[in-house]
Design goal:
The complex is a heterodimer. Chain A is 84% helix and 0% strand. By secondary structure, chain A is an all-alpha fold. In chain B, helix 1 runs antiparallel to helix 7 (197-229) and helix 2 (56-83) runs antiparallel to helix 3 (86-118). Chain B is globular. Chain B is an all-alpha fold. Chain B is 74% helix and 2% strand. Chain B has helices at 10-42, 56-83, 86-118, 126-145, 151-165, 168-178, 197-229, 234-239, and strands spanning 188-189, 192-193. Chain B has a two-stranded antiparallel sheet with strand order 1-2. The chains are: A mainly alpha, B mainly alpha.
């Protein structure tokens, strides 16, 4: 029997995508639940920055209704970006990321679980809070609906793209600014179509083309990015 | 049989690049002289835009090169990731500054053309915005490649980033078709062109010149990168005595 065959036989063949996904999702959600401060900070940041715009630009209702969707999207984008370090950097620093790669589950499984947990802890609260901010900006109910739908489809893409960028910068010098330089340009298409959906609704057009493109982007990101994230983590742990 | 991997060794490629670079620079200079002559002396004045259209002899070739260099860079990144070759990663690094320069030139000349023609230096049009994103992708690539103590780590991470960023290229290329915004559609296509023949020749000569310049510049730069990486090897130390 060759050495590789012995090594293969000694590893229990219990790993599967779904188990790994569920394990990582439960673990990261438990961690987020035990340290609620981080999620609360993201949400507080979102609300705070969104309330700065009316104070800085002026509070005319037409102006606010005009810029509302875009401002909310930019705030959601920044909030999603600021919560990225908790996704992988902590696990990388204390070595648990390296341990996870040794698990029998396929890497893409628990990576997707971690990204999903990140979205539940950052993207989902922002999506649920967006109508409240939208009301402050005087958006109509239809526009609010389009905005929430766009955020619900778009924020998972932000989490996936952000995970890829943060995996690339693991252990790099000047982490925060570098992450901004990598992630924010890649977020631009999501911002354009996400804000475009709500604006189309506000100007009386159908938001569905924008939402369809966002959905296509989500499918593309969900299929293409997990392998890229796995490769980036392997490069980081090499 | 030819040994295809002979020049994949940095030591042999260093000499090859040193021998080839001057030829590419010379070709770039000759083509640039010819292209500028055709562009400024032969090509007629545009009926609608007047003399200001002549910026296309810089603008269009620079935009082409900005996208093409990114594509080549991503290909080198893919090669470096799949075959784990050092030289491909060094070539990707060497191409990035030239690509960023052409992206900047494309944006800059575009804004100088936009002022008299559109009445504004900058619009948030789909093609211009995606070209700006390309500039940031180049900056991100350069920053990520240099962000690690271990240069090989930077090679691999930046190669993966280049591959992810390739998604932006079709967005730039098709942006004038997908969004009906201010930037005009492409004048040149494989099926033919809607412009005067001399204008087309000027543009093509300038594009070839920029291409040759890019090859020469990246070969010169990759020589510096090879020397920096291989400074402790025997062959690199021997260079200072020859």
């Amino acid at each position: 029997m060759s050495a590789t065959a012995i090594a293969a036989a000694s590893v229990p063949a219990t790993g599967s995508f779904a188990t790994g996904f569920a394990w990582a999702l439960r673990r990261d959600l438990t961690l987020a639940w035990r340290h609620p401060g981080e999620t609360i900070l993201v949400v507080a940041f979102f609300v705070l920055v969104a309330s700065l715009f009316p104070l800085g630009i002026g509070a005319e209702p037409q102006l606010l209704a005009r810029i509302g969707p875009g401002v909310i999207w930019v705030c959601a984008l920044l909030a999603a970006f600021l919560s990225l370090p908790s996704l992988l950097a902590g696990d990388y620093a204390d070595g648990s990321l390296e341990q996870m790669t040794l698990s029998p589950h396929p890497m893409s499984g628990w990576i997707c679980g971690k990204v999903a947990a990140h979205w539940v802890a950052s993207g989902l609260p922002l999506t649920m809070l967006a109508p409240l901010i939208g009301l402050q900006y005087g958006l109509s109910p239809d526009t609010l609906l389009a905005l929430c739908a766009a955020l619900a489809i778009g924020t998972p893409v932000l989490s996936l793209l952000g995970a890829a960028c943060t995996a690339l910068t693991l252990g790099a010098r000047g982490g925060g600014m570098l992450l901004a330089l990598l992630a924010l340009p890649l977020f631009v298409p999501i911002l354009v179509f996400g804000a475009g959906a709500a604006e189309a609704q506000a100007t009386g057009l159908s938001p569905s083309p924008h939402l369809s493109i966002l959905g296509a982007g989500l499918i593309l990101a969900a299929v293409g990015l997990p392998p890229a994230i796995c490769t980036a983590i392997r490069i980081a742990l090499d | 049989m030819i040994n295809w991997f002979y020049f994949a060794s940095p030591a042999t490629f260093y000499r090859l690049a040193g021998w080839m670079a001057p030829w590419f620079f010379a070709a770039a200079a000759i083509l640039a002289v010819a292209g500028l002559y055709v562009g400024f002396a032969v090509a007629p004045t545009d009926a609608q835009q007047g003399e200001v259209y002549r910026v296309i002899f810089i603008h269009v070739p620079a935009s082409w090169m900005s996208m093409f260099i990114y594509f080549v860079m991503a290909c080198y990144g893919g090669v470096s990731l799949t075959f784990n070759t050092r030289l491909a990663a060094m070539m990707a690094r060497a191409l990035a500054p030239t690509g960023a320069m052409f992206t900047f030139v494309a944006l800059w000349t575009g804004s100088f053309w936009g002022r008299p023609t559109w009445g504004t230096y900058w619009v948030w049009d789909a093609r211009i915005t995606s070209e700006l994103v390309l500039l940031f992708l180049y900056f991100g690539f350069i920053a990520l490649a240099n962000a690690f103590e271990d240069p090989r780590r930077g090679d691999r991470a930046s190669a993966l980033l280049a591959l992810i960023g390739v998604v932006n290229l079709p967005i730039i290329y098709f942006s004038v078709l997908w969004w009906n915004t201010l930037h005009q559609g492409s004048t040149v296509s494989f099926k033919g062109t809607s412009m005067h023949v001399a204008m087309l020749w000027g543009m093509l000569l300038m594009a070839l010149s920029f291409w040759m310049y890019s090859v020469g510049a990246s070969l010169t730069r990759v020589r510096a990168i090879i020397l920096e990486r291989e400074r402790r090897t025997h062959w690199a130390r021997e260079l200072q005595f020859t």
